Amino acid sequence: MDNLTPRQRRKNMQRIRSKDTKPELILRKSLSSLGLRFRLHGKGIYGKPDIYIKKYKLAIFVDSDFWHGKLYREGKAVPKSNQEYWIPKLERNIQRDIEVNMELKNNGWTVMRFWESNIKKDVDQIADMIFEKISQLKSSK
Question: Domain 17-139, what architecture?
């Protein structure tokens, strides 16, 4: 059990970023080095993709292993305290990702999602996958 006060917990939660996370910055740098042009945090696009290319209707999401449920699904990060809050929260995040994917696909978008741990492990491979997908989308236009 942690020894944090409610105030300290709130402060810790406030530090969690939804934009410009380290994995996102790493991926953006790698994509830029390949000469790719993209936009960020699509406010007018359902689900607000982290990176998007409207011309090719490509939406890219950089998902946190914890917040988007990778570790939870693997049984590696099941919260020990306040489970009645955290488990439904993680399950809802997973469900929302599925809904966002379906909505974007129904509107003709190609959706790519990458786990933060995979980006940290081999960002070049992921950037190459995105570059290849853009090449495929270009040739199908």
Answer: 3-Layer(aba) Sandwich (3.40)
Per domain, the residue ranges of the chain are: 17-139
Is there a contact between 94 and 69 (Cβ–Cβ < 8 Å)?
Answer: yes
Cα separation, 17 vs 129, in Å, equals 25
Instruction: Extract the tokens encoding 121.
Output: 């492990």
For the entire predicted model, the pTM comes to 0.84
> From CA 104, how far away is CA 124, in angstroms rounded?
26
Task: Name the DSSP class of 80.
Answer: S
pLDDT averaged over 10-residue windows placed end to end, the chain, 141 residues: 59 58 95 95 93 97 90 81 87 96 98 97 97 94 68
